[in-house]
Structure formats: C-alpha cells, structure tokens
Amino acid sequence: MPQLSITRIRDLVRSLNYVVSVHAAEELEDDNLTILDLESIILTGKIAERQRDSKTREVKNVIRGRTLAGIEAETVVKSVPPVRSSSSPSISFSGLCASCGLAAPQLRRVTRTFGKGKDLLVIEGIPMWSCPRCGESYFTAQTMHEIERIKALRKSVAIERPVSVAEYHDEAA
Ligand SMILES: [Zn+2]
Question: Across the strands, what pairs with 46?
Fold first, then answer.
C-alpha cells in the first residue's frame, strides 16, 4: 500500500473520506474533544512518526498538530485496505476493515450516551460499522459530524423522555 502523505491525509479529512474507530471516538469524548478537534490536529499537523506493525506490516502515521483550542495533541492515521467504491460515503463503509483488512464491516444501529448527570444525552439509531471478523467498530466521518450537530443542537432536536438511570456501586460487587 502506498504511504500516506500529509497532503493526502488532509484531502481525505477535508472530503470526509475517513472513519473513526469507536475506541478513538471514546477517547475524544473522554478528553472533551470533538471530531472538529481531531480534524484540526490533522489539518494543522505534521507526520511526527511512522510506525510499522511488526505483525501486520501496516504503517501507522502519528500526526502531531493542534486542537481547536490550540493545544498540541497527537492522533494516529492509517490507510484502509483496498477500497471497493466510495460513491456514497455517507451510507457505505467503502473498504475492508481498517483493523484486520479481511472483511467488509456491516451496519448496525446503536444507542450511545454522552455526558452525565443533568447533561446526559442519549442518541438512538447511530449507524455503526462493525467487522464480523475481528469485532472492530467504526463511525464514518459523516456520522461523527452528525453526532456533534445533535449535541450542539440538543435543545431543539432532542425530546425529553423519562428514562431509568441506575448507578453502579462498587460496594455491591
Ligand atoms: Zn476486522
């Protein structure tokens, strides 16, 4: 696979031709960063390092740039194995699993919660692509942006619904 240049990576980011692993999406959430911060890191950043996985031989590009708030941060970018078609990137996951490269991820709809306490927001029906081979899961760039839009507009797009929220206590373990 040809090595990704920073120019190519930026083009892919600008055209929303990328996916984010659920793991990476959760890390963003934990760090109070959004997909716009991730894109900012790449659009302002440089490839700081290339690491080749000794087992899979795949190359991971470590990109160091700045978040929207100007804070230095790093992210890892790798290319997805051969693409079938990307005519409709908003619905289709246009390649093989970025983790194992052996199967085409399948669409699932998931419910996810964001924030906590009074700020808790539940979003249902989020399209998530899951690899039937290795279990890795992804959100498309479009999905990440839509989640951000829903979070920003929650006052107007969310409806209030009584839900049961329980808290797990360690003492009960
Ligand atoms: Zn896989």
Answer: 64
User: DSSP H helical segments within the chain, as ranges?
Assistant: 6-14, 22-30, 35-44, 141-152, 154-157
**What is the CA(163)–ligand 1 centre distance, in A?**
34
Q: Compute, in angstroms, the gap from residue 57 CA to the centroid of ligand 1.
A: 15
| Tokens 């924030």 belong to residue | 115
- Paired tokens of 45: 């950043």
Separation of CA 163 from chain center: 27
Task: Tell how far the Cα of 104 is from the centroid of ligand 1, in angstroms.
Answer: 8
Rounded to whole angstroms, the Cα distance separating 132 from 126 reads: 18
Domain ranges of the chain: 6-157
Residues in the chain: 173
Looking at the predicted structure, is the pLDDT value of residue 5 above 80? Answer: yes
SS (H, E, C) 20-69: EEHHHHHHHHHCCCCHHHHHHHHHHCEEEEEEECCCCCCEEEEEEEECCC
Say how many Å lie between the CA of residue 160 and the centre of ligand 1: 37
Percent of the chain clearing pLDDT 70 (strictly above):
89
* pTM, rounded to two decimals: 0.86
Dist. CA 112–CA 15, nearest whole Å: 26
